[in-house]
Amino acid sequence: MLKDFIRKRSIHICLVCTGGCNGCDIEVAALLSQRYDLEQYGIFLHNNPRECDALLVTGTVAKQWQEKLVEFYDKVPEPKAVVAIGACALSGGIFQQEGDKVSAPVSDIIPVDAEVPGCPPRPAEIASAVLKYVPPALASYRRKS
Amino acid sequence: MSYIPIGPIHPGLKEPLRLKLKTEGENVVDAEVDLGYFYRGAEQLAKGKPWQKVAYLTERVCGICSNAHPITLIEGLEKIAEFVPSTRIQFLRVIMAELNRIHSHLLANSIYFLAIEHETLGIYLLNTREKILDLLEMISGNRILYSWNIVGGVRMDIKESHLKKILKNLDEVESEVFRNRKMFKTGPFLGLRSRDIGKMSKEDAIGARAVGPVARGSGVKFDWRMKHSTYIDYFDFEPIYRNEGDNYARIMNRFDEILQSINIIRMAIDELPNGPIREECEIPPGTIDYRYEAPRGELAYIFETAQYGIIRNITIRTPTIMNLEACVKHMFKDSPTIADAIAIYQTIDPCIACTERVIVLNEKGEKTEFKGLQNVVKKYGTSPKTGMTSQGNNK
Ligand code: SF4
């Protein structure tokens, strides 16, 4: 109970880039600046999957990530949520063409709770998606298992 | 003697990459890098496509140097067509390229400060960077991927009112960069973490073919802008370099280059001539090896065109691959602790998205080990020319 209450205000996120162009990753990094001030909303960005609540997945899921992403998802403690960011993670974006070597979308590989379209999406959109969809996803995750 | 694996996802790293450090106590004696978490095959996709599509693809090779990649392709195409754009186009391109360089250098330095746990400076610099991103958005309509350069010119003009905003924001950025540079220069603890750590001599830098601010931090006086016709004709460009060769020199060099870029933009705005922003240019068949100074160093595009601007074949070589080698071979030797190894790694401003250009698969399409070209040659007896040289072909 107490944990659920607190988790609504403090979400730890881990950024996983699976092979896009970096554009989405630097927009997540831009969230740290004072203009957006992510930590003010109770979101803390660190790249440690073993102690995070939500995974932010960007990129097209390159060859090596196909199995690794599932392993990664298993490492995250329960309850957990996944936010897919950018056209790459949603559909493969520009790299989804004939003769490609990518296996997007991310939702084929791990369950995704929220999707943020854009190439890249603006930082404010990423922050609002995390704030709006991650707490309910974490709350409903408990009921599932 | 023990091994410490770092990555692919690790709090100290911003992009997926595996570093395997061989340590003796706290000293790093050797390191290995394992790439392959980012391969998308842009070169393969580019084959047989018209340049209009390839320009979008090259932009998405790297989201941070997203002006340098398309401009290298496009200026190369213009060289094939022997087309010289009007002076206004050249100046507009310089303004955009330097704004992009400032944003990249600010991000690189900020990530270094976050890596040595000096959050104050790191976040100040990120905030300064937002002002530059505002300008880029105002000019091109997007913060990160601009799609602004096209063969024969640029897509949108920079208007009078834009110029005022640019000058105003640049003044603010300049004073903030001056302040932060002073903090870095005089801060005793920052100095302790940065000076005399990760040293690389000039000979080593040349031997490892280091490029960009990494090489210039070790005293190599070279910058591809010295050979770029616009910079020669209108800006009498002189590269900035330092002789220390340590973390301090590389970060300081970036700070100084930011200030230099600001001055170049001011000069360009002062003398911005009138003229068309787009001209007709038809691309004949041809080949070219064109190089350009991206924020991280030399960027090489080697490509072949067919009639009507179709790209037949393309090879991209990005700066980080050489800098990574310089880092692993020479800089890590001089790392007193493991925490410093991460800081050293961040000073080369690694961009893994750029670096991943090749993946080696076996005939079933599974990823296989690749231990250097020489082993393939030994095993199969192919000459390097027919075997593994052309990037993206080794499927
Ligand atoms: S969605 Fe666009 S900006 Fe984001 S990683 Fe993919 S190509 Fe880059």
- What order do the strands of the largest sheet of chain B run in, or round the barrel if closed? 4-9-8-7
Spatial order of the strands forming the largest sheet of chain A: 2-1-3-4-5
Shape of chain A: globular
- How far do the termini of chain B sit from each other? 37 Å
Mean pLDDT of chain B: 85
Order of helices and strands of chain A: HEHEEHEHEH
Q: What's the CATH architecture of chain B?
A: Orthogonal Bundle
What would you give as the CATH superfamily of chain B? Cytochrome-c3 Hydrogenase, chain B
Spell out the key features of this protein.
heterodimer; A: about 140 residues; alpha/beta; Rossmann fold; five-stranded parallel sheet; 5 strands; about 15% strand; B: about 400 residues; alpha+beta; Cytochrome-c3 Hydrogenase, chain B; four-stranded antiparallel sheet; three-stranded antiparallel sheet; 15 helices; 9 strands; disordered C terminus; binds iron/sulfur cluster
Structure description:
The complex is a heterodimer of chains A (145) and B (395). Chain A has 145 residues and is of the alpha/beta class. Chain A has a single domain (8-138), classed as Rossmann fold (3-Layer(aba) Sandwich). Helices cover 37% and strands 16% of the residues of chain A. Chain A contains five helices and five strands; from the N terminus they run αβαββαβαβα. In chain A, strands 2-1-3-4-5 form a five-stranded parallel beta sheet. The longest helix of chain A has 22 residues, at 123-144. The two termini of chain A are 16 Å apart. Chain B is α+β, with helices and mostly antiparallel strands. Chain B has one domain (50-323, 361-393): Cytochrome-c3 Hydrogenase, chain B (Orthogonal Bundle), CATH 1.10.645.10. Chain B has helices at residues 42-46, 51-59, 68-80, 87-115, 119-140, 160-186, 188-194, 202-207, 212-217, 229-235, 247-270, 320-331, 338-347, 352-355, 373-380; strands spanning 2-6, 18-24, 27-34, 49-50, 149-150, 153-154, 286-294, 297-305, 310-317. In chain B, strands 4-9-8-7 form a four-stranded antiparallel beta sheet. Chain B has a three-stranded antiparallel beta sheet with strand order 1-2-3, with no helix packed on it. The longest helix of chain B has 29 residues, at 87-115. Chain B starts with a strand and ends in a 15-residue tail after the last helix. The structure holds iron/sulfur cluster (SF4).
